[in-house]
Fold this protein.
Amino acid sequence: MAFDWKSAIVPVLACLALAGGVAVYSVWRPDERLAGCLNATAQLIALTVVGEPLSYAVACSGGPAWDATFMAWDRILGLDWQAYLAFVNARPWLAKINTTTYQSVMPQLIVVVVGLSLTGRLEACRTFVLAVALTAIAAIAISGLMPAETVFMHLGLSQATAPNVPFIDDTHILALRDGSLKVVSLTDGQGIIAFPSFHAALGAILARAFWHLPWARWPGLFVNLVMVVATPVSGGHYFVDVFAGLGLAGLAMATASLVERHGGIAPAFGKRIGAAITPRSAARPAGRRAPRPARFPAR
């Protein structure tokens, strides 16, 4: 399987432009809020550029599907996925709300990054980005060990089964299984991670991030609660996928908070870079001359 490098040109250029903006607003026109916003945005774009093809590569090397096991775990918990699908399908208004919230991840990411950064909550923003990155890496790794299809695929359901519930596009999962997918492109990538649910994990992480913003606290909690509840049907996930995603998000947020409390990732390295690119003229206050070296040893 090959990677379409041309599809990475735009996001890579965007990351470079954002990195340049970080340098400008960190050194020449200091504005830590704007620099933090640009930095967080660049990191999330970079995560997508790396994470999406990595998830495809891991999926190709995965073993037998765990769908039967996940379905059995759902039944042990007393959860009936098909009954839930029928419940949502019988209420078109609920299906519409579920689909809308499920597709709201990107706007929410923008609101969180901009809101936390520009209100000076930079520690919360860094913790949020790190939690998302840790969750993505862990979810990709786990999905390789415990691969699965969507519930729609496992049960052999068609759109006619539930006309009011838009089924997700699972063509790439099928193509990965039969080996017909030869090229991975960032322009038409699909979410192919089933267990744990990355959507459910993002719902928990986003809700926690919104809690730092008083004006968005309760709306953010509501939207992401609905998104998590919608995940089994709107994302074709087993219920245990959702529970695993929530657990993974809790671990990622705790780890990210711990890292941030201990100074973040490689703070010394950042200081060295800042010192290296700081102009010499900015090394001392304007209007003051550097002290002359003493001609004789001090007594």
